Amino acid sequence: xxxxxxxxxxxxxxxxxxxxxxxxxxxxxxxxxxxxxxxxxxxxxxxxxxxxxxxxxxxxxxxxxxxxxxxxxxxxxxxxxxxxxxxxxxxxxxxxxxxxxxxxxxxxxxxxxxxxxxxxxxxxxxxxxxxxxxxxxxxxxxxxxxxxxxxxxxxxxxxxxxxxxxxxxxxxxxxxxxxxxxxxxxxxxxxxxxxxxxxxxxxxxxxxxxxxxxxxxxxxxxxxxxxxxxxxxxxxxxxxxxxxxxxxxxxxxx
Length: 254
Description:
There is one protein chain. This protein has helices at 5-16, 40-46, 80-86, 122-133, 149-163, 230-234, 243-252, and strands at 56-59, 72-74, 96-104, 137-144, 168-172, 175-185, 193-202, 208-218, 221-228. The chain is α+β, with helices and mostly antiparallel strands and 254 residues long. The model is unreliable at 1-31 (pLDDT under 50). The relative contact order is 0.25.
């Protein structure tokens, strides 16, 4: 049975989605000039792990994430901190960094028995396909800095949300993309400072893919959150960086 272009769009978005992001601003304490960076071992202990977030599976394998900044390129230098945050990489020149993927666990239906794929109509197939993809997937990154490095890095991100509002070209892991706009949104208020944004980018057939990013400073450590939900992207329904993930990570950094 031939599937409609919506399925092809979904597949394309799934491949390119790990390259979008956006911010929102929220101020806080400016302390941290005497901060001592966490070591790589300390940072790996500080980042969320499996069992830390109810309803989410946390994958620390790094299989889906960029290995280094070498595979993430922004067409505009001032927008690079946003591009790095979208890949779970350190937005600035950090002493150490770590990243994991937190994926929402899908609740199994309890009412009607599922049909086999062969028995589904075209509309039922697309509905089932979209529903299966309606999961929040969040790349969580931690990076730690000496002295006032975290403060300077946070400012570079906050400034980029404003200066890069018109978008920028992006290459992530060999895939060229075009972020068409960055728009500030309300941040969680976690940590000492937090900024959040929405990123829109071109997808197949003129569609627009929307993802969400939040960056939070906890003293000398920066936490980045990049969230995509492919099913809700396809149906233009709203979503955000999940508060449960931010809260769990903030709790481990206290």
